[in-house]
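Could you help me review a protein record that somebody else here produced? My question to you is simply how this chain folds and whether the tokens agree. Thanks in advance; the entry in question is below:
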Amino acid sequence: MQRKSLKTERCPVARTLDLIGEWWSLLILRDAFRGKKRFSEFQRSLGLAKNVLSARLRKLVDSDILEIVPASDGSAYHEYVLTEKGNSLYTILVALRQWGEANLFKPGEKHPILVDRKCLQPIKPLELRSKDGRLLKAKDLQLLR
């Protein structure tokens, strides 16, 4: 069944999901943030069929989230690197990770921990704050149309 496109919806969440909401796209982005650049690296990491991986990469490139550049080692290959637009998605992946850590693992269950490279300490949970610095919850927000 063909999915309905959400790219013309008025809702920013719907438009974002139309672009990156498919789980393979998010996992490709996760791997790009981990330093993977080549088609073969993504395929090996994800175990994804070549045609599906190719389609997802093409969509991310067409959307200016990834760009194709010559291989950094001078070989005939090319690499996929995050653009500025792509790099700005990191907070979304961290939010998904933190939600998963808090809600999908049993107490004491092992999983990789995201740490600050400088001090090797876990990062604080993301917070939503007002312009004046107040901590905000969903009940504190309202959508203006």
About this structure: The domain at 12-87 is CATH 1.10.10.10 (Arc Repressor Mutant, subunit A). The chain has a mean pLDDT of 94. The first strand starts at residue 66 and ends at 70. Residues 90-103 form the longest helix (14 residues).
